[in-house]
Structures are given as structure tokens and as C-alpha cells.
Design brief:
The protein is α/β, with parallel strands linked by helices. Helices cover 34% and strands 24% of the residues. The chain has helices at 33-39, 61-66, 76-79, 87-90, 96-112, 125-134, and strands at residues 3-6, 9-10, 19-23, 26-31, 44-47, 51-52, 56-58, 115-119, 137-139. It has a four-stranded mixed β-sheet. A three-stranded parallel β-sheet has the order 7-8-9. Helix 5 (96-112) packs parallel to helix 6.
Length: 142
């Protein structure tokens, strides 16, 4: 769906650019609101406070999702709330369902920080499913 995202400014765009038109995930125009809205009069409009910036690509997603455990809030008393790695993960009884649930929590953290794409090859089936269902763009490893 064609959407114009309007804000106070667009990061990395020329001075005066405060709008970005996006169609199906592809940027089709960047510029001042008057120009972009005139070029796409039927587009839906989303207004944002502050700055519009491009999304982040997480190139460490494989390590964060397949080697790091993101505890369930119900495990906070025993495991804490911060991600676990190394020997702490080795000590847990990890099966594919638990890896998938951990990956979903890890993906939620990434989304909160503006991630729009992840790079990597995911080998754990539960993690692969979570990444596919997340709506994030999957890029090849870097």
C-alpha cells in the first residue's frame, strides 16, 4: 500500500525533506511534504514526531537468536531478564520449542530498537520459523 511517512525531517535527505513515500516496502520518493503529497494524492499518510530514518539491519542476528537465550518473563526469578550466552545456555535443557520461543523474544527486542532486516543463515527450525513469521526482511550473511 502506498504510504507517505511525514515527520520533522528525514535523516540523510537534503534540507527541507520531511516526507518519504513508500510503496510495498520500496521508497519511491523523498522530499518536502508539498511535493511528495502532490505526487501521490491518494496515498495514506502517517505522521511521526521527530525524525524518519531508515531501518536497521541486524548483522549479528544469528548469534543473538541461535546462540543466546532470551529468558521468558516467568523465568526471571531463576534466570534474570537479560539474555544468556555461553555456559549459561549450555546448562539449560534447550529443545527446538524453547529455541523458537527465545527467538521470538529476541526478535521483539530487535523490533523495539528499529530493526527492519536480519542477516544470516538460521539453522535451528524453531528460530527459522520465528524469523520468517516476524515480518523482518531476511538478508544473506555478511
Amino acid at each position: 500500500m502506498l504510504t507517505i511517512h511525514a515527520a520533522d525531517a528525514v535523516l540523510g535527505a537534503p534540507d527541507g525533506a520531511d516526507s518519504v513515500a513508500v510503496d510495498g516496502g520500496v521508497v519511491v520518493a523523498v522530499g518536502p511534504w508539498t511535493d511528495v503529497s502532490a505526487a501521490f494524492p491518494t496515498a495514506r499518510v502517517r505522521r511521526w514526531p521527530g525524525l524518519v530514518a531508515r531501518g536497521l539491519v541486524n548483522v549479528t542476528a544469528r548469534e543473538l537468536l541461535e546462540e543466546t537465550y532470551h529468558p521468558d518473563p516467568r523465568e526471571a526469578d531463576a534466570l534474570g531478564t537479560r539474555p544468556l550466552s555461553g555456559e549459561a545456555v549450555t546448562a539449560l535443557a534447550m529443545d527446538d520449542a524453547r529455541w523458537g520461543a527465545s527467538a521470538r523474544r529476541g526478535l521483539q527486542r530487535m523490533l523495539r530498537h528499529g530493526t527492519t532486516a536480519v542477516a544470516g543463515t538460521f539453522t535451528r527450525p524453531g528460530v527459522r520459523t520465528a524469523v520468517t513469521r516476524s515480518g523482518l526482511r531476511l538478508l544473506p550473511p555478511t
